[in-house]
């Protein structure tokens, strides 16, 4: 993997961990609302 790809993968893994933690502490609805927003996906696409 390229260094830039490793950086992206690292961020994604950290986000996944945060999502799981929220799922376990605040429930699935809160986690889905935070991590499955279309706006967030569009922001990340713009950064690429």
Overall average residue pLDDT: 86
Report the count of strand segments.
0
Q: What percent of the residues sit in helical stretches (DSSP H or I)?
A: over 70%
Radius of gyration of CA atoms, rounded to a whole number: 12 Å
Q: What does the main sheet amount to?
A: none
The topology string of helices and strands comes to: HHH
Q: Tally the helices: what do you get?
A: 3
Structural class: mainly alpha
Low-pLDDT sequence parts: none
Strand content: under 5%
Shape: flat
Distance between the termini: 17 Å
Characteristic terms for this protein:
88% helix, 48 residues, 3 helices, single chain, mainly alpha
What does this structure look like?
The chain has helices at 3-26, 28-35, 38-47. By secondary structure, it is an all-alpha fold. It has a domain at 15-47. Helix 1 runs antiparallel to helix 2. The two termini are 17 Å apart.
Topology of this protein?
Elements: H1 3-26, H2 28-35, H3 38-47
Helix pairs in contact: 1-2
Short description:
With 48 residues, the protein is an all-alpha fold.
